[in-house]
Specification:
Layout (H helix, E strand, L loop, with lengths): L5 H16 L5 H10 L7 H28 L4 H30 L14
């Protein structure tokens, strides 16, 4: 078992939440797609699988951040874990909106009608 100080846990969960927000944890989806290969469903089914996977990861980060925020004592570690909760919640919301859009479009691409004259 890895034992960490409250300060180390606060830094770790904040770093993971920021990585989620900037999309680095989204590489998990790429790994699953590459692992499944031809077994990956195409179209909306594939987008749904990827979206659900991303929501599970984002939800797990949010729940861990929330649990740490509740269990951390006063001081800067508590402030940092509370910031991690906000960052993780924002990342979860962005993941949900992008995932719903990808499933609705069926192919994950940006519709040309969304940006007239650009495409």
């Amino acid at each position: 078992m890895l034992t960490m100080t409250p300060q180390a846990r606060a830094l770790a969960i904040f770093t993971v939440a920021v990585a989620l927000l900037v999309g680095q944890l989204g590489r998990i989806s790429l790994g699953i797609v590459l692992l499944l290969g031809d077994a990956m469903p195409s179209g909306r089914g594939g987008q749904l699988v990827v979206t659900l996977l991303q929501l599970v990861v984002a939800g797990a980060v949010f729940l861990v951040a929330l649990a740490l925020a509740k269990s951390t004592g006063p001081g800067w570690p508590a402030d940092l874990t509370q910031a991690a909760v906000l960052v993780a919640a924002l990342a979860f919301a962005i993941t949900a909106v992008v995932g719903i859009g990808a499933v609705a479009q069926g192919n994950g691409s940006i519709p040309a009608s969304g940006f007239p004259g650009l495409f």
